[in-house]
Amino acid sequence: MITVNCISLADEHARRDYMRAQLEACGLPYRFFDAVRVDLGRGWPDSYARGQRLRHSGVDMRAGEMGCYLSHREIWKAFLAGDDELCLVLEDDVEIGPDFAAVVDALCADTSDWEFVRLTGVFRRTAYPLRRLAGEHFLVEYLEQPNGTQGYLLNRRAARRLVDYTAGMAHAIDMAIDREWEHGVNVMGVAPGPISHQETFETTLGSATKLRLSLRQKLLRELHRAGGNIAKQLFLARKRRRLTNHRRVQ
Length: 250
What we know:
- This protein has eight helices and ten strands.
- 40% of the residues lie in helices and 20% in strands.
- An eight-stranded mixed beta sheet has the order 2-1-3-8-5-9-7-6, with helices on both faces.
- Helix 2 packs across helix 8 (215-243).
- A hairpin with a 2-residue loop joins strand 6 and strand 7.
- The radius of gyration is 18 Å and the shape is globular.
- The chain has helices at residues 13-26, 50-57, 63-81, 100-109, 156-165, 173-178, 180-183, 215-243, and strands spanning 4-8, 30-34, 86-91, 94-96, 116-118, 127-134, 137-142, 151-155, 187-191, 195-197.
- The relative contact order is 0.18.
- The two termini are 32 Å apart.
- It is of the alpha/beta class.
- The chain has a single domain (4-198, 209-243), classed as Spore Coat Polysaccharide Biosynthesis Protein SpsA, Chain A, CATH 3.90.550.
């Protein structure tokens, strides 16, 4: 039986109690993974690709975003250092639905058609169903990704590719995962999701600091984005053709 890896700051006792109660109720084994806390007062993390980040967005990543990014990456590395074939990750602010365990069991029972599966997303996207998992939940593909890292499963191939791809930190971790055209992992999902975001907890990501950019910096940012957008649009055109024959789940 697969173990849930729940990312949580060590001193977030209320969040841990909330997740512990839900995980024990659904019957899956679990462990808490102490999230990385970044202190920007001690300087930028070594892996922060600040130049790339500012060229793309003009805004530095927040300390909480960096901690989230590094936490997910450390879980992938720990997974690859072990012998498990699959890894299940949850953040500590999700609400677990009644079909969660059944959906996870169905995904673990047949891994032939997926390598990374999101269990929920931030945004509503058109989903293309591949097969029924449990109840009304389907394994789906998205043309455009719904963002979010609240919960997902991945296999060893996906973890290896993502660890390599995320060596330099320039995007929020969910946006890095979304960039399929760069890392080559096919990111799928479950619709409707068996988990959802719990809105009552205050975010630990912090607030963004926007830099004042010169006209030259703004032009360079747009040129940088345009180059990346060409590759993205070519990838989406190929994916759109592949998904055209699938029935859509709205």
